[in-house]
Structures are given as C-alpha cells and as structure tokens.
Amino acid sequence: LAGWLNHSTHSRLSCSSMAPSSSSASGGGASGGGGASSVGGASSSGSAPAKAARTSELGDMRSQLGLLLAPRTRAEMTTKRDLFAKVISYMTQGVDVSLLFSTMIMAASAPTSPALMKDLSTGDESLDAVTAYLQAYNAILKKMLYLYISTYARQHADLALMTVNTLQKDCQHEDATIRGLALRALCGLKVPNLMEYLVPAVAKGLQDRAAYVRRTAVLGVLKAIKLHEATAANPATAQLAAAQGHPHHLVESVKTLLLRDTDPQCVSNACAVLSSLEGAGSLVTKALVYGLINRIKDFNEWNQCQVLHFVSLYEPQGKEETFDIMNALEDRLSHSNSAVVLATAKVFLHLTLPLPDVHQQVFERVKGPLITLVGSQVSPECAFAVLTHLRLLVSRAPMLFASDYRSFFVRASDPSFIKEQKLEILAMLAHVADMSLDGAPTGSVGRHLMEIVNELLEYVTDTVDVYLSRLAIRCIGKILLADEAESGSEDMGMLVERLMLLLSDDLGHNSGGSDGVEPIVGTHVSSECIVVLRDVLRKSPTLFATHCRDVVASSMPDDMRLLPSAQARAAYAWMLGEFADELPNAPYVLEDYVVSEDDDDEGEASSSPMASEESAAVKLEVLTALAKMFVLRPGEATRALNAGLTLGVADENLDVRGRAVHLLRLLEDGLSPTGAGMDAIGRVVWGGRQPGERSGVRVRVSDDTSGSKLDRIFREFNSLSVVYRKPASSFVSTAMIDEGLGIAAGGATSEAAAQPKGAAEEADLLSMEDTNLLVLEEPSSTPDVATAAGDTSGVASGIDLLSL
C-alpha cells in the first residue's frame, strides 16, 4: 500500500483533486509532464503514452482493491472507501474505468472479516455501535457501487448480466437501506434481457416489511412497465417482450397498496404511478378520496398538494357531500405553505362551480389566506405566484376584493415583479364600488378611486425606482381607458387634469438652452404621459381635446428629437397629425423633423433627424401624420411630405418602405386628373372617417383577455397557466388534460390558430395607426432587410408632390 501511494512513475490525480481547480483545468502544476490530463483528461488525449499511463494506473487501482476485499483494520476500511470514491470521480470526469467492473463488485460484496471485528471492538464502542458503523459503511460502498453499475450496465449489456446475481442477493439483504438501493439499481439498468429477474424482485419488494423498500418497488413498477412497452415497440426485441409477458399483475399490487398501505410516502408514490399509467380520472373514487382526506395530515407538504389535486377532480354527489369535503379541508387554508393553500383553494373553487351562491362565498373565504400569504414574510417568488392567482380571482369577481385594495399598495422593499402585479390589481379595482355586508354597492367608488389614484401619483414622483414610476403612469392610463370609466365624469376629468399637470411640470423644467440648442426635455414621466395622452385622445377625442391641445401647444417642444423615448416621439407625431387643424405649428414641427437645416428646396433630406431615427414605429407615425396633414393643410405640408416620402422609399426597414410606397401610390392615383381627389385620400389615411372628424374608437389594453380564455385559465388554477396568462395548450407540447396528472397525446394547439382569421382585429387597417397600446417595452418592428418592399420602379430619389 505504501509503495502504491508513493508510486511516481505515472502522474495521477490525488484524492484532493477530485474537485476541479483552476490549475488542474489549465493543465499546469502537474508532475511528470502529463499532469492531470493523464487521467482526468485522458478522454481528450489520444497519445499512446497517456493511454499507457491511464491503463497502468487503473491496473494499480485494481490491485489495491483486490488486496482490500476484506479489510482488517479501520484504516484499511478508509482506504477502500477512498478508492471507491476515486473510481466514481474518474467516471464522472469521463474516464473509462469499466476495467474495474468485476473488482468493484467483489470488493463491495466481501464479508466482514473476524480481524476487522476485533480491531473495531478494541475501543470503548459497544457491539451495537460497531454494527451501526458497519451498516453505514456498507451502505456508502453500495451507493457508490450501484452508481457505477448503473452507468456501465446501460452502455455494456454484457456487463449488466454480471451484476444480476449481486443485485438479487442484495435485494434480500438484512439491511432495508441496501435492499432498497439494490432494487433501485436493478430497475435502473433498463436492459430488456433482465425483465425475468426484475419483475420477481419488484413483486417481492411490494410486500417488503420496510417502507423504504415498498416506496422504491412502487416506482420500480412504472420503470418495469415502461421498459416492457419500449421492448415491445422495438421490432428487434418484440418477440422477447411477447415471451416475457406484460407485468400487469404488478399494477394490481400497487392498487392494493394505494388503499391499504400505512406509509404516506408509499401511498403518494402509488398515486403518481397509477396516474401516469391509467390517468388520474380513473382513480378518483369516493373511497379513495375520503381515505386520502382523512390521512392528509400524515403526508408531507409536497404529497398534500398531490392529494388535494386528486380531490379537486372528484365530483360530489350533492351539496351536503361538498360541504363535508370543504369542512374536512378547512384547516389547510391556514397552512404556512403557499402551495398547500393554493391547492386547497383550487379544491374549493372547483367543487363549488355548480353552486353559484356557494362559489361566491368561497371567493370570500379564500381571499383572506391568499392576501395574508402576500403580506407575510414568504419568499418574493412565492408572493409573486400568489399574486398572479389573486389577479385571476380579481378579474372574475372584482366586487368581492374592492374593500381590500389597500392590501395591494406597494411596499418599498417589494421587488419590481411584485410591484407590477400589485399595480395591475389596483387598476382592476379602481372602478369597483365597495360592497356592503348584504352584497349591495355602497356607492363609494369615487372616494376609493381617488385614493388609489393618489397612491399611484406618489409612485410617479419616486425618483429612485424609475420602473415603478413608469408602471404607475401606465396604471393610470389603464384606469382612464377601462370600459367601466365614464369619460364625462368629474373623477375622470380630474384624473386627466392631474396627468396633464404632470406632463407640463416635467416638460417645463427643461424648456430650452441659452446657446440656442435645446437639451433633451422631460424625463420618463413626460414620455409615459404623452403615450397615455395619445390613448386618451383616441378614446375620447372631443371630451378632453381642448385642454390637451392647450397643453400640447404650450408645453411640447418644437423639436421632436428632444423627447427622451421613441414611444413618446411616435405618440407626439400621432397627435400632430390627428389635430393638425387645431395645432398651428404642427406642419413646421414635422417639417423640421424630416427636412434638415441645410436642405435645398427640392427636399433632399438625407441628413434630417428622421434619417437617423432608429425606431421604425416613429417613422411610420410620421409618414401617416404627414399624409393627414397634407389633406388638411396641403400648402404648408407639401415640402415636409415630399421629404418624408423620399426618406421612406429609401429606408432599409420593410414596413417603413412599404408604408411610403403605399402613400406615394395613393397620392399619385388621387391627385391624377382621373383620380378620386383629396377627399378620397383623406378617407383612407383617416381610417374611413372624414378628414378632421373626431370620433372615439375602442382602445385595446395590452393585457385584455377574453372571457372564454379566462375560463380556460381558471380551470387550470394552481398551474403555470395562471402565471403565463394563457392556457397550457399554448406553451407545452403535450397539454395536461382535465384529469390532471394524465398526459394527453398530440401536440400543442396554437391559441392564435384556434381563433378565426381577423377575430382579434380591433382597428381599421386603413387607419395605419399603431394599436399596441400600454405596452412597456419598445414596439417590435420587422427586422431590417436589404431588399425593397414591393415594386418601387419609377420612384425617383427626389419626389415632387407639386408635379402630381
């Protein structure tokens, strides 16, 4: 042993180098010229000396293991354990150590020698302590051996046959831990030829007196059946599978354990196995559900969630049975684990779907525990999951949550994703009146609305958390654009005034520079306010037009480049085009944007601000605004439109180039002697309206979800569907069917493909306006391409509208 430890002919990894270090990874610091690469990196080295060194070292390790088959002292036991660990370390690094296969099996199965018992008993340890030490030591060796066997038996079927006798013998070991480990290793071999040995071992394990062995055997049933199905599906081994027969009798044994076993973990494993084989719906019976409910406190938290999912699939025979189940699970709503609370809420909500009156009371019952979980000291991730479910419940019954709106006020310590969820819930509750005890509205919506708005305005002025400030302004926009909002109400008018005050105050701080060059005006506050203002004017163009027009005329800069974000510039361009007849300087603001100061009269605009604009959304809005302005004020807008179209047809973006060519063809056709005239052009660019006509349109909020989609998500309560806000079939390849744990065959069904073509369109395509409102991210655009959009032949580089 000393000679092996001091052997330096071939370099090798030391025991301490089992964990990779920077020196060994780089190949430095090793003796003998080879370093760690001679063993640990042998898989990447193909030289003959390296292979020889590796083979020599494996031979030395096999010799040492042969000498330590029956250790006689505690020190030799430690050395043997270290050699096992070293073999496993090499194996995990990719080194082929299959040469040691037989030696490893013999070393782990050697009996305890009398000399070792004598050496261990020389101290003060009692016989029981020595026995416990030997059991723990043997368990460690067996775990490493089974990992070694499982790895190489899958790659070499012939080696797997060598392990059958060892594993079968260990399955009858007196130590329950070793019996369970051996059975797990036997089930993990996945060799078709071993089915005749696997099935009897699993059947015997299902009747073992130790709970750990029964748990392993239940999971082994699933592995055995899956192995048989894979063998039968392979034409090369189908005849072998037919000769072995289907192990269906194991399933009956698992069903017996499901109803009679005293170990909760074994029952849970049986539920999972049978659900995977037959589907959860076929298992849900009254006897099973009642048995699981009566023992639910014996299960751990993970298994309690599985039991509650089974209960949610059960259909009670009457109202009394529903109440009995809910009373038995009432205390689970007070559990400290959020997963158990959500699973219990799912049971209550699903059981009471046929009972509308009781269903509403369930909302009242579950909201308290869920809100408590959000406010307690749980992890932010758990709070986020609970908030997403609360958001779904609020969308279905906002009246029941109206009195709890203060629970969703933002805390300074909340992460950004928690703040976002809370603000979305506040926007849903803003227009909901309080409910009295008898269920009738109290009419206090105005007070609560202004309290929520004042809280949001406090977030707007937060100079530390810019993201929260942006979210708060967007939330105010959602309140203004909600279907429940009365556009002519005093509250809405006051809210618009507060929004305009924020805009004018933010823009007024940086109104100009002393050297004649204006700096960037405003901050994120003005950018978001401009976008919300654009959406408000789309919905109610006549109600707030006068006040908003005055704010735009007095506060907005004359140079669009000074606005800090592309979204703000796009919204400003839309307002200039929509209210071109009421804003005196509108043509000149756009002209300064598309025509540079050194441009000649022919409209060469290669160095204009629009040419350097990176956002395609801004260019699209500018082109549409120029066309609208040309219809209302052709004399003042001709030069700007000429320069804008020249830039548009030469733009690299496909959408911008297509929009410019479309407008150019429209103008050529409308202004020709046989054309339809300016009115026809105006109806197209104004989306079917008369030029300058003020009529509100339905504004689509980005998180708007249809009622049928919400119902589908609600049926998948306590799942990722609630977090993603979409049914499971839209983001998984095989969606979970209504039975829950059963897997449906077939691929995912696209949510968009299930809708009829054009069903989601809410704006006239002829209006050429961006309808993606209230989206915090930058609007997406088509990737730039080098080819032209459509036929642009005949389009000169300098377009002169006066010649049309």
In short:
This protein has 804 residues and is mostly helical. The protein contains 35 helices and no strands.
Keywords for this entry:
57% helix; disordered N terminus; disordered C terminus
Indicate the structural class: mainly alpha
Radius of gyration: 37 Å
The fraction of residues assigned to DSSP E strands is: under 5%
- The overall average pLDDT, rounded, is 77
Uncertain runs: 1-45, 435-439, 510-519, 601-605, 735-804
- The coarse silhouette is elongated
Helix content: 55-70%
The major β-sheet equals: none
Count the helices. How many? 35
In total, how many beta strands?
A: 0
Cα distance, first to last residue?
101 Å
Could you characterize the architecture of this molecule?
With 804 residues, the protein is mostly helical. Helices cover 57% and strands 0% of the residues. It is built from 35 helices and no strands. The protein has helices at residues 2-5, 22-26, 48-67, 74-92, 101-109, 114-120, 127-155, 157-170, 176-187, 195-206, 211-233, 238-244, 249-260, 264-278, 286-294, 301-312, 319-328, 338-351, 356-375, 380-396, 416-429, 445-460, 466-481, 490-508, 524-539, 545-555, 566-578, 586-594, 616-632, 634-649, 654-670, 678-685, 707-715, 720-724, 751-754. α23 (466-481) runs parallel beside α25 (524-539) and α29 runs antiparallel to α30. The longest helix has 29 residues, at 127-155. The termini are far apart. 35% of the residues are buried. Mean pLDDT is 77; it is low at 1-45, 435-439, 510-519, 601-605 and 735-804.
